[in-house]
Write a structure and sequence with these properties.
With 225 residues, this protein is α/β, with parallel strands linked by helices. It has two domains: 4-123, Rossmann fold (3-Layer(aba) Sandwich), CATH 3.40.50.2300; 127-222, Orthogonal Bundle (Arc Repressor Mutant, subunit A), CATH 1.10.10. The protein has helices at residues 12-24, 35-44, 61-70, 86-94, 107-122, 155-166, 174-182, 191-204, and strands at 4-8, 28-32, 49-52, 77-81, 99-102, 129-132, 135-138, 143-146, 149-151, 212-215, 219-222. A five-stranded parallel beta sheet has the order 2-1-3-4-5, sandwiched between helices. Strands 6-7-8-9 form a four-stranded antiparallel beta sheet, with helices on one face. Helix 4 (86-94) links the parallel strand 4 (77-81) and strand 5. Helix 2 runs parallel beside helix 3 (61-70).
Length: 225
């Protein structure tokens, strides 16, 4: 089940752009045009993460975060705002923000930050194993099994497989995998990702399972079948 993200932004074009990017990355989105509407929305159906502007009518982003925290709502909040001075950033974290992105911003950066925050939020009850189709990954013993049989993998192959399964059914970009597995950001060639994807396919694809897919123009996806 994909994570639900509440996008709070009074600028229609920015709101739609953020939602489109998050939906393309595999997330569900809900919107609010100001903090007041966001508070009502969050009370009805709690989102997994909130991406919010600060300068908004009625209830601004600072007050939104403060009121959520005051009522015990610990939903992660990312401020996405043109207010980039140090006092603004400091206030954002003091009222309960988990991250702060200044406008103008890059879509890839936003998606990476969202993924990182959600991953940290879930780390306290993280599973000991992951699975997809016939593949099982044991995170404690750092081992991989295919249809119950142990498959030897390198540390890099293991990290890449975990990154794919943690985003099961979601299309993830080469840049995202570079950052997750190799921690190279965008400075290095992404062809290394394709090379290691091919290694995993050779080890884990069978006559009945070919779930590690290339989505041309977007990235990679691992599926149950």
């Amino acid at each position: 089940m994909s994570s639900l993200i509440l996008v709070v932004e009074d600028d229609t074009s920015v709101r739609e752009m953020v939602c489109d990017a998050l939906q393309l990355a595999g997330y569900e989105t809900r919107t609010a045009v100001d903090g007041s509407e966001a508070l009502t929305s969050q009370q009805k159906t709690k989102a997994d993460l909130i991406v919010s502007d600060i300068n908004m009518p009625k209830v601004d982003g600072y007050e939104l975060a403060q009121r959520l925290r005051d009522r015990g709502d610990t939903t992660p909040i990312i401020f996405l705002t043109a207010r980039s001075e140090k006092p603004d950033i400091g206030k954002g974290f003091r009222v309960g923000a988990d991250d702060y992105i200044s406008k103008p911003f890059g879509i890839e950066e936003l998606v990476l930050r969202v993924a990182a925050i959600l991953r940290r939020a879930k780390s306290t009850d993280a599973p000991k194993s992951l699975s997809v189709g016939p593949i099982t990954v044991d995170l404690e013993s750092v081992s991989v099994k295919l249809e119950g049989e142990l498959v030897p993998v390198s540390p890099t192959e293991f990290k890449l497989l975990v990154a794919l399964i943690e985003n099961k059914s979601r299309v993830v970009s080469r840049q995202f995998l570079m950052d997750e597995v190799w921690e190279m950001g965008f400075a290095e060639s992404a062809t290394v990702v394709d090379t290691y994807i091919s290694y995993l396919r050779k080890k884990l694809h069978t006559a009945d399972y070919e779930g590690i897919r290339t989505i041309r123009g977007f990235g990679f996806q691992i599926t149950e079948k």
